[in-house]
Amino acid sequence: xxSHHIVKEKQEPALYIHQLxxxxxxxLGQLLEWSPTVIVAAGEYEKVVSLGIKVDVIVGNLExxxxxxxxxxIIPQQRKGIEDAMEFLVKEKYPAVNVISEINSFDxxxxxxxxxxxxxxxxxxxxxxVKSGFSVWKPAxxxxxxxIIAYFEADNLMQxxxxxxxxxxxxxxxxxxxxxxxxxxxLL
Length: 188
Prior knowledge:
Elements: E1 14-17, H1 25-32, E2 38-41, H2 45-50, E3 57-59, E4 73-75, H3 82-91, E5 96-100, E6 117-121, E7 125-130, E8 135-138, E9 143-147, E10 152-155, E11 157-159, E12 165-167, E13 171-177, E14 182-187
Parallel strand pairs: 1-2, 1-5, 2-3, 3-4, 5-6
Antiparallel strand pairs: 6-7, 7-14, 8-13, 9-12, 9-14, 10-13, 11-12
């Protein structure tokens, strides 16, 4: 039996690199493992290419004379870049995207959540929206970073003085709330 994997287009989450910063190259390699569509902000293009990554789509305008890889699609930046990338992904019917950014804020992205699954990565954490009733098994001591935009209740979770939430004992952590989403983060 062959160990080759056949990946259908759009089966894996796309990868949008908004701000690479000092993002861990090992984690970047994991996000690239299944050859996703790679979309980058124009300002990050040269840095991404220097890492040997094939770029599929650029959001924004490059400086004149910037050498381009083959078969690159360029999307003009009309908003904040990240919103232009989300508009493109939703229009192209991508079911999911991993976003690398220096900011872990969903402020500009909540309107896209009904149309695309989104995970936001920073240098030290990953953040994702959950719906009420979401539960996940975690070992004791796991730290959650929760953007408290609405009241929520959680089982097996204790808030620390620094505002982080820590899993009390090995087991399920369950979330209940009235808002459409709760934004949960975990340290990488």
